[in-house]
Design brief:
Length: 333
């Protein structure tokens, strides 16, 4: 017999001491809270599974991540081989069993290059989503909970970033050979993966801050927050232990959608020549290199990178839709 059943039997028989009853009550409460949390996440998981398009998108997205991680295993070809005669003679080959996506104008295997570009895009998308979410949650939490002059100062700071023309800023930063922020910091180049993540996150955290601020303004007046204050809980504890868990739904949904937006922005910059630079490979610069092949026999050079980009962004958005419905009890019928 488990200790939980033993406590229950003793309590029902009426033979337990006061100390035992108190301990049992604490055990029952802790067990009940654990079961409630588990049950809640089971319900969320089931709701997400009911969203068949989101479930399929999640499976496809995981497969794409796996393909990017194991790119060397899936394709035996070098994505940037030396341009020797044996490589150049294989130029412009249509898709076949040997080259699934064909070869480009220089004889390089297109499937290998798409896998490398996929990994580049996923790194940028996931990195930007994570960093912008952290910054946005931090700013929004402080503004929404403390209000007053802190709220005013942080929201005016947020508005300052919102009015910046993001694409123009990114294009200017990409042309700066030494992005040191006026000599104060030694930042990575804007065309590198790390630099692109920092720049896109710096220009993309503001919507998250506004969302979290709105959630906190609504939640800070609830009874459970008043009870936490009455129990002596300080601001940081209330923010982390009470408000943040109750705001996790909108945060997760925004972070998911930010992945697709960051990937699309990175591809746009690379297409315009301000993103990943040759010999680096990205979906954007692959599409840019093949823009003159539309309507020709080499249209596959723009078709496959474009389809992969479309698939990533579409899956990220459908996953966000599924999470939004799963985490919102009012949307469940």
């Amino acid at each position: 017999m488990s200790s939980f059943d033993e406590h229950r039997r003793i309590r029902e028989s009426g033979t337990a001491t006061a100390g035992a009853i108190g301990s049992t009550a604490l055990l029952d409460e802790a067990a009940g809270e654990t079961l409630a949390v588990r049950s809640q996440w089971r319900v969320v998981f089931r709701r997400f599974l009911h969203h068949r398009v989101a479930t399929a998108s999640l499976i496809i997205f995981i497969l794409l991540i796996g393909a990017a991680i194991f790119a060397d295993v899936l394709s035996p070809y070098n994505p940037n081989p030396p341009l020797v005669a044996s490589v150049l003679t294989q130029a412009r080959e249509a898709p076949s069993a040997e080259h699934l996506f064909g070869t480009d104008k220089l004889g390089r295997d297109q499937f290998s290059r798409v896998l490398v570009a996929l990994g580049q895009s996923l790194q940028v998308g996931l990195g930007v989503a994570l960093l912008s979410t952290i910054v946005g949650v931090f700013v929004g939490s402080l503004a929404g909970y403390y209000r007053g002059w802190i709220d005013s100062a942080l929201m005016r700071f947020t508005d300052l970033f919102l009015v910046l023309p993001a694409l123009a800023v990114l294009l200017i930063a990409a042309k700066n050979p030494e992005p040191s922020f006026f000599g104060l910091f030694n930042l990575p180049a804007a065309t590198s993966t790390e630099g692109m993540i920092l720049l896109l996150a710096a220009l993309g955290w503001m919507p998250m801050a506004r969302i979290v601020r709105g959630e906190y303004l609504s939640l800070r007046e609830r009874e459970f927050v008043e009870a936490a204050r009455a129990a002596g809980a300080k601001g940081p504890r209330i923010i982390l232990r009470h408000l943040l868990p109750n705001s996790i739904g909108p945060i997760v949904v925004f972070a998911t959608l930010a992945v697709g937006l960051a990937i699309l922005t990175e591809s746009t910059l690379s297409f315009l020549g301000a993103g990943v630079q040759v010999p680096g490979i990205s979906l954007g610069n692959m599409i840019a290199d093949a823009e003159d092949t539309v309507g020709t026999d080499l249209a596959y050079l723009i078709l496959f990178p474009g389809l992969v980009l479309f698939l990533i962004v579409l899956c990220a958005n459908f996953i966000g839709d599924g999470l939004r419905d799963a985490l919102n009890p009012r949307s469940h019928k």
